[in-house]
Amino acid sequence: MTARSTPRPARPVAAPAPLLHPRNRHQGRYDLTRLVTVHPPLRDYLIRTPAGSDSIDFAAPAAVRELNRALLKADYGIAHWDIPDGYLCPPVPGRVDYLHGLADLLAEDNHGQLLQGPQVRVLDIGTGANLIYPLLGQAEYGWQFVGTDIDAGALASAQANIQANGLQAQIELRQQTARGSIFAGLLQAQERFALTLCNPPFHASAAEAARGSQRKLGNLAGSKPSAAATGKRGAPALNFGGQANELWCTGGEASFLRRMIKESVACREQVLWFSSLVAKSEHLADIHKQLGKAGALQVQQVDMAQGNKRSRFVAWSFHAPAARQAWLAGLA
Questions:
Q1: In terms of C-beta density within 10 A (0-12 exposed, 13-18 middle, 19 or more buried), how is residue 282 classed?
Q2: What is the pTM assigned to this prediction?
C-alpha cells in the first residue's frame, strides 16, 4: 500500500483556529447517547447537569478514561484501549486536532493534497502509555508511526494496545535509554520521517504540576473537586493523570524545547518537519529565537482551540520549499 493523496482542501496552516479543526469529528457537544450505545460502561459515569442535560464528571479520572474508550471505539474503530492507573489520559479532540494541523502542513508542500498511507512515517516523542497519537494518526490517515518513551512501563502498556488492535505492522515502539536525550540514539542511519510530534512535559517540578492540577480541578468542579476526583486524605487527583516524566522535567517546557531544537539540527537531513505542542504562550518568543539560531529555514506556528482552552504547536524544517516538495513527491 502506498501513500495516496486525496483532493480534500487543506486549511491554511498560518491562520489561527478559533474552534476545532474543520475535519475534527468532535465538533459541539458529545453525543453521549450514541457513545453509551457503542460503549455501555460509559453509562455508569453519566451525571445530570443543573440545566437538565447529560454530561460526565470531567474531574473524575475514571469517567474521563471511559469517555476516551467510547470516543476511540465509536469514531476511530479502536476496539481496545487501556492505560495503567496514574498514567496520562489525554483528551481526544485536542490530540486529533494536532494531527489534522500536521496533515495540513504536509498538504501545503503537496499542492494542497492531503497525504495518506504508511509511507508517511511519523516519529512520536514521548508516546506514553496511552499511545494516543499513533492510534489516532493511523486511524485518520493511515500513517506509520514510531513511538518513543523513556518509561519501560509506559511502553509495555502501549505495546498491549498495539497488539490488542492488530497494529503491529503500523506502529513500532522504541525506548530512549539515554536520559536527557530526545532524538539522539533513536533514529537509524538510513530512515527518514515526514513528521515528528511531541507533547512535552510543561511543568518545571512536581509541586508546580500539583498546583496546576488543583487549578484545573477547581475550574472543572466549580468551588471544589468532586468526591470522585479526590484521592487519599482529600488530596486532589489528576483527572487526566500523568507520571512525573509526562508532567514535568527540570527546567519545564522551555528547557525541554530548547534541547529539542538543538538536537534537531543533528538529524535535520532525516526529518522533513519537526514539531511540538507549546502549552505556554510566553515561551513562543524564545522558541522562535532558538529556531533562528539553529538555522531553521521554515517555521510555522499553528493555533488551536477547544472550548475556552487555547493551545498551539510550532513546526520547523531545515529544508527549502522545493526540497520539501521533492521529498513528498517521492512518497507517491
A1: exposed
A2: 0.83
- Residue 130 structural domain: 4-28+90-329
In a domain, 127, yes or no: yes
pLDDT digit string (tens) for 164-215?
999 999 999 999 998 888 999 899 989 999 999 999 974 343 444 444 444 4
Tell me if 228 sits within 8 A of 57, measured CB to CB: yes
One-letter amino acid at 41 equals: P
The pLDDT tens digits for 233-272 are 333 344 444 444 443 345 579 999 999 999 999 999 999 9
Q: How many domains does the chain have?
A: 1
Residue at 73 is within a domain: no
Tell me the three cell numbers of residue 133: 497519537
Instruction: Enumerate residues 6+ apart whose C-beta is below 8 A from 11.
Output: 17, 21, 22, 100, 101, 104
Provide the CATH number for the domain around residue 178: 3.40.50.150
User: Helix or strand or coil: residue 48?
Assistant: strand
Residue 53 in domain:
no
Residue 75 and residue 67 in contact, taking contact as beta carbons nearer than 8 Å: no
